[in-house]
Write a structure and sequence with these properties.
heterodimer, A: alpha/beta, Rossmann fold, 2 domains, six-stranded mixed β-sheet, 22 strands, B: ABC transporter involved in vitamin B12 uptake, BtuC, two-stranded antiparallel sheet, two-stranded antiparallel ribbon, 15 helices, 5% strand
């Protein structure tokens, strides 16, 4: 191992597995002194897992971490803080009811005769913050300050405590442009002081504004490390979304002729503050893919279509008949089904057995007074456990004990049991292992061939290209492009997303 | 069928054992505890007394179990008892026939339950706060109904509900056992039980699966209000009068305790009405036992607390994990139904 004095933090071969999923697969990550290093990737790419391994919040399975060329093994975040690795999270985790000074010196207040020396502490805090160009009343409650100031206080505390490596986990998510600029001024100042700064964000302009190097993760794997100046924005999006230029051969000619008549028509459909009004037509036996970066309105589109979020604009038609879809129940009555993105929160009913999870939607539609007999429940559960190859020791096992992929298949089974004609799948393949992944894609194609209409949201562009007959591209909560036929290639999708990004640059 | 009976037996085993131990302890200090006698076609004895005295808490526990299964709680049941008792007494003194009196009292309980359910399901107020409103206001309403006095009555029919007998058993015992069986059948023979459990475990996922979450939540609180109304009528009939200040006082806590002793988690989900009823009987057995055994009354609450702490410790998840090393493996997933 070469001892490059420039490198302050070097992680090599970091692996971390959770039951049923490999979260990090031999990740290397190096951070230089006086560098802002952006860590990028879509949700579930492994960014936060990597950060948690570096700060000791998780214990890594394999790999070494060198801090100043000596191996470290932080047992928890406090340990990491004392070693010199400080973290500032998106939602400030300070105490809003204490004063600014108390927050900075919490747990290490200067004392006199065992009592907190408030005057000394306030003076020290004011001095510290003045280094950041902030002139504040440090005896004011932190909660009375803007989020930006709270962020700076959090940074000041972290730097004062740790002072070697600063990890900023989406610090700008809730700041306005001016506040972001203030934050960046401070980041550059700390960089000049020789700190290594890891910067996590979803905003690409900010990456280009402040970072020196970029590391991209995807599905727990390292995609690459590049100098920011030498990486065009389009290539960065491609890295994040996982388009390999070599696999461009995949043609997009889909069964778009095979699709039948238009069954579902949404016109000017939208919800203020969630998703701009959009038009969408879904034919029988057709898969509409939805692509876009995180926060572009993908999930919001799904929720509005399903009635989980009530649309306040536009109309919905099924077979030319106007319908009202103001609740999931109403949508289900019209044959809709929805597999949500976060199956732990929105999908599974953890303590109930697999059997009851599978029959839940059908039972809900029948109403409480017409129960499915136990024999019928057993038959349905067995049928979908077999058809979808749900791996469980028996159908009475609480569903929370199953792996992510099998939970996902059980939720799919829940909807298939209601015999739906229109299914919305939000990230059906996220966080599940490769085998289950392939099975779900095969299932999507089968359902479509049987004449079901599907809307599938996915960050995996290769996947969308395989099964979509049309792809809708979203940006900033707006439907910005629709690709069909030969246009459906990963590079076209990436172009649509990236060109959408460019007005901001 | 055999499997469900086995599951039920396994589920109720801890409560049955706890009840047996409590009864055995009482019998040890008070011989003759298990003796019965039949007078005028009616059974008398300490066991019957426990079943009879425990009726209000048993009834409250039925509704409370369902509410707790939805991840809620109903603090207002004691106050609702007082209101409904007062309504029954006022109606009886007014000279209304028994049917009208009962209908008014039960309707009052149902309205109280709908109010609680509305606050929780529609306005999305935390159950503990939502039901606290009626817990505080309820006694005031009851006092308004009784006009601040203890309202006594002489309606024979109403008194029969508290003091009469049917088939040799006191009326209150018959009422809670029949009502308990009826509600158990209602939730388990229909899909209500499963849907309620689903709401309690994951309300959002349940709504997304098409369950009418608000309707079922309101129904759960309404059932609890109805149970409190029946308990209130029994309590009033027992003393032949409505005492707005003391009827059902602190019984909401006993009802919650009965549910917890019965092994239903306060976090919602899996529930068993039968186990809660056993829990109510355990609590009443402790109360009666302490009186019978002749301890000075100042020890009562402390002894009760000690026994309950022991029962809860034995049921706690930590102890369960430790004891599962020794138990048959089937015990592990036996916590159902």
């Amino acid at each position: 191992m070469q001892a490059d004095p420039d490198i302050i933090l070097a992680a090599t071969g970091i692996c971390k597995s959770f039951p049923g999923a490999r979260a990090l697969d031999t990740i290397d990550f190096t951070l230089r002194r006086g560098e802002v290093h952006a860590l990028l990737g879509e949700n579930g790419a492994g960014k936060s897992t990597l950060i948690k391994c570096l700060t000791g919040a998780y214990h890594r399975d394999e790999g070494t971490i060198l801090l100043d060329n000596s191996a470290v093994d932080p047992r928890n975040t406090l340990d990491a803080q004392n070693m010199g690795i400080g973290t500032v999270y998106q939602e400030v985790n300070l105490l809003p009811n204490l004063t600014i000074a108390e927050n900075i010196y919490l747990n290490r207040q200067p004392r006199r005769f065992g009592f907190t020396a408030t005057g000394v502490m306030n003076r020290m805090a004011a001095d510290l913050l003045s280094q950041y160009g902030l002139d504040l009343d440090v005896s004011a409650a932190l909660g009375s300050c803007s989020v930006a100031v709270q962020q700076v206080v959090a940074i000041a505390r972290a730097v004062d405590l740790s002072g070697k490596v600063l990890i900023l986990d989406e610090p700008t998510a809730s700041l306005d442009a001016q506040e972001v600029e203030m934050l960046f001024r401070i980041v550059r100042q700390l960089k000049a002081r020789g700190l290594g700064i890891v910067f996590i964000t979803h905003f690409l302009e900010q990456v280009y504004a402040v970072s020196d190097r970029i590391t991209v993760l995807r599905n727990g794997r390292l995609v690459g490390v590049r100098d920011t100046a030498a990486l065009p924005r389009k290539d960065l999006v491609a890295m994040m979304l996982g388009r390999e230029l070599e696999t461009e051969v995949e043609a997009g000619a889909k069964r778009n002729d095979a699709a039948g008549k238009v069954r579902y028509r949404f016109s000017g459909y939208g919800k203020g503050g969630k998703i701009e009004p959009f038009d969408m037509e879904v034919r029988e036996g057709e898969v509409i893919g939805i692509a876009g970066l995180l926060g572009s309105g993908r999930t919001e589109t799904a929720e509005v279509l399903f009635g989980a979020v009530r649309a306040d604009k536009g109309t919905a038609e099924i077979d030319g008949q106007a319908v009202t879809l103001n609740s999931p129940r109403a949508a289900i009555r019209h044959g809709f089904g929805f597999c949500p993105e976060d199956r732990k929160i929105d999908g599974i009913v953890g303590d109930l057995p697999v059997r009851e999870n599978i029959v839940l939607a059908l039972q809900a539609r029948r109403g409480w007074s017409r129960p499915l007999s136990r024999a019928e429940q057993d038959r349905l559960a067995d049928r979908y456990i077999k058809a979808l190859d749900i791996r469980t020791s028996d159908r009475e096992k609480p569903i929370r004990l199953l792996s992510g992929g099998n939970q996902q298949k059980a939720i799919l089974g829940r909807w298939l049991a209601t015999d739906p004609s229109f299914m919305i799948l939000d990230e059906p393949t996220r966080g599940i292992d490769v085998g289950a992944h392939a099975e779900i894609i095969r299932l999507i194609e089968e359902l479509c061939a049987k004449g079901m209409s599907l809307v599938v949201i996915s960050s995996e562009l290769e996947e969308l290209v395989v099964y979509s007959s049309r792809v809708v591209v979203l940006r900033d909560r707006r439907h910005v492009a629709e690709l069909s036929g030969d246009e459906i290639t990963t590079s076209h999708i990436v172009n649509a997303i990236a060109s959408a990004e460019s007005p901001a640059s | 069928m055999i499997r469900t009976v086995q599951q039920l037996a396994l589920r109720l085993l801890p409560q049955v054992i706890a009840l047996a131990i409590v009864l055995a302890m009482i019998a040890a200090v008070f011989p003759g505890f298990f003796s019965f006698s039949l007078q005028n076609g009616r059974l008398y004895g300490s066991i019957i007394d426990i079943l009879n005295r425990g009726a209000p808490v048993a009834l409250l526990a039925i509704g409370m179990t369902v509410v707790i299964a939805t991840k809620g709680i109903d603090l207002s049941v004691g106050a609702v008892m007082a209101i409904c008792g007062a309504v029954a007494a006022a109606s009886a003194t007014h000279g209304n026939p028994l049917v009208v009196t009962l209908a008014l009292a039960l309707a009052t309980g149902i309205v109280c339950g709908i109010w609680n359910g509305f606050l929780v399901a529609v306005l999305d107020i935390q159950p503990i706060i939502a039901t606290l409103v009626l817990m505080v206001a309820g006694r005031g309403i009851a006092q308004l109904v009784t006009e601040g006095a203890i309202l006594t009555f002489n309606d024979e029919g109403l008194i029969f509900i508290g003091g009469g007998a049917f088939g040799g058993l006191p009326m209150p015992v018959v009422i809670w056992i029949v009502f308990g069986i009826a509600i158990t059948a209602l939730v388990r023979r229909t899909a209500l039980g499963m849907l309620i459990e689903a709401i309690g475990i994951n309300r959002r996922a349940s709504t997304l699966s098409g369950i009418q979450t608000p309707v079922l939540l309101i129904a759960a609180y309404t059932l609890s209000g109805l149970c409190a109304a029946i308990a209130g009528v029994i309590a009033a009939a027992d003393i032949r009068g409505a005492d707005a200040n003391n009827a059902g006082l602190w019984l909401e806590l006993d009802a919650i305790l009965a549910v917890v002793v019965g092994g239903t988690s306060l976090l919602g989900g899996r529930f068993s009405i039968a186990a809660s009823l056993l829990g109510a009987m355990i609590i009443q057995a402790i109360n009666t036992g302490i009186l019978l055994s002749g301890f000075p009354p100042e020890f009562n609450l402390i002894i009760k607390a000690v026994i309950i702490v022991v029962i809860l410790v034995v049921q706690s998840p930590k102890i369960r994990t430790i004891s599962s090393f020794f138990a048959r493996p089937a015990r592990q997933n036996g916590g159902e139904r």
